[in-house]
Amino acid sequence: MTSLPLADRYARFRSAVFSGVEEGLPGFDEPTTEMELQSLWFSGAFGSEFTTTDGKAVRIADFGVWNSGAGPDFNDCAIVIDDQTLRGDIELDPDARDWERHTHGANEAFNHVVLHLFLHAPEHRFFTRTSEHREVPQVLLRADMLPEGIKPKRRTASAHLGRCATPLRDMDDARVQSIIESAAQHRLELKSKRLHRSVAAQGREQAVYQALAQTLGYRKNQQPFAILAQRLPLKKITQLDAAKREAWLFGVSGFLEGVRSDDTEPATRSYLRQLWSEWWKLRESCGRWLEDRQLPRWKLNAIRPGNHPQRRLGALAAMLRSWKPIIAPLADATRWSQAAWRESLLVLTHEFWATHYTLLSDVAEKPVALIGETRVQEMLANVAYPLLVPERTRLWAEYLELPALLDNQKVRLAVQRLFGDDPRGNDFRKKLHQQQGLLQIYEDFCLEDDSACANCPFPERLKEWG
Ligand code: SF4
Questions:
Q1: What does the pLDDT profile of the chain (466 residues) look like in tens digits?
Q2: Given the CA of residue 165, which atom of ligand 1 is nearest to it?
Q3: How far does the centroid of ligand 1 lie from the alpha carbon of residue 190, in Å?
Q4: Best mutation site among 446, 461, 465 for ligand 1 pocket (most ligand atoms within 8 Å of CB)
Q5: Whose CA is nearest to atom 5 of ligand 1?
Q6: Which of 91, 45, 52, 43 is nearest to 71 (CA)?
Q7: Residue nearest to atom 1 of ligand 1 (CA)
Q8: Ligand 1 close to Cβ of residue 303 (< 6 A)
Q9: How far is the CA of 399 from the centre of ligand 1 (A)?
Q10: pTM recorded for the entire structure
Q11: N or C: which end of the chain has fewer CB within 10 A?
């Protein structure tokens, strides 16, 4: 993968600014559920090479499949330890002692565990043993193994004119644009690193499928969409016909169980009958995932009808029906055509979801695009270009021309703080890369600052930007 030159410059600028400051990758004191940690592990976010608690190098050769029944969390995994490949299961617990607390050590179903992962360990060493008294290698996962960008949500900064607005006002357009573009390159590189780590763990198609599914989750439901894409991986879901696939998606999401047919309008009733006719056959094999604490945590408050996750799940089902034209252009950066890819998404439709927002809504007056321009832009910004630009840096020029996404609150705040009433503030947010650059500066500086700008190093450092 090739690095983008301006991204390096911004990274140096930023690291110099924060030298001596602990960057603070996420700590697990944050309210992260076991299921979310499993999802991070399974996507390869922690990496694939580790050192066991007794100092041996271990590599994950195959992350396996997420177990839908009783027993260890992941099955059919392969690890390489001491040049020896071990095949079996992987168990991930918040604390090493959960192995005994949950009596895994006496449970034969755990006899094939080849690796025990945990986030906390007691002061005195705890050994993981199976019911056959075999010692299981252990790996302690740490927050600093995660790539930058997977951070707990931070607060927003207040809307006031920043101290940097004065030096920025004195800078010519080209210099301001150069800083914003550098920050945008840096942001794209961070996204690329995360995505390519996921490619290394799961394979390119699965990583892209998961990333596209996450984009359908908007900001609030990215995690549930990631979990669905991991539990129902491409290699399994694409073997099913469309009806079974859709039943599986809606069943494992938990949406089917919560809807009473009598509460719905006739077209929905018929759609539900179709889903249930397949789901009841699949349901038993997904027992563990239907337990309350295992269901994806959908966030449904303050969601616009068009962004409801049920409708977005319908969009994912439609994408899977046309998967080949969506994935093929992402296989080779030299054959990429943005226009063709965009079109393959915009034409997607669905006989039910084109006219429904949720399973409980009435029929819409007229069909609504399943995946609109804004969603495609998000997919370009968060999946296609982060995947392809490091493989063909000439695509950066194409990325620069992408128009801005719909304005969001963070971009507005960043412009307000950095530019105030300087009319150039609006000019510097017309393109997608400008929005991305402003967001990066906002997150790197404004959200790290606790001094109402007084101690923020950004204004002083700006003077050194040639
Ligand atoms: S915190 Fe720094 S970057 Fe943000 S507005 Fe204040 S001076 Fe500018």
A1: 667 777 788 887 777 554 433 333 334 444 467 888 899 999 999 999 999 999 999 999 999 999 998 999 999 999 999 889 999 999 999 899 999 999 999 999 999 999 999 999 988 889 999 999 999 999 999 888 887 766 554 567 788 899 999 999 999 999 999 999 999 999 999 999 999 999 999 999 999 999 999 999 987 899 999 999 999 999 999 999 999 999 999 999 999 988 888 888 899 999 999 999 999 999 999 988 999 888 989 998 888 888 899 999 999 999 999 999 999 999 999 989 999 999 999 999 999 999 999 998 888 888 888 999 989 999 999 999 999 999 998 999 999 999 998 778 889 999 999 999 999 999 999 999 999 999 999 999 999 888 999 999 999 988 888 6
A2: 8
A3: 22
A4: 446
A5: 162
A6: 91
A7: 446
A8: no
A9: 27
A10: 0.87
A11: C
Write out 255-303 in H/E/C secondary structure. Answer: CCCCCCHHHCCHHHHHHHHHHHHHHHHHHHHHHHHHCHHHCCCCCCCCC
Show the beta-strand stretches assigned E in 63-156. 65-66, 74-81, 84-95, 113-120, 138-140
Atom 2 (ligand 1): residue with closest C-alpha? 456
Please give the number of the atom of ligand 1 that sits closest to the Cα of 162.
Answer: 5
92 beta partners: 117
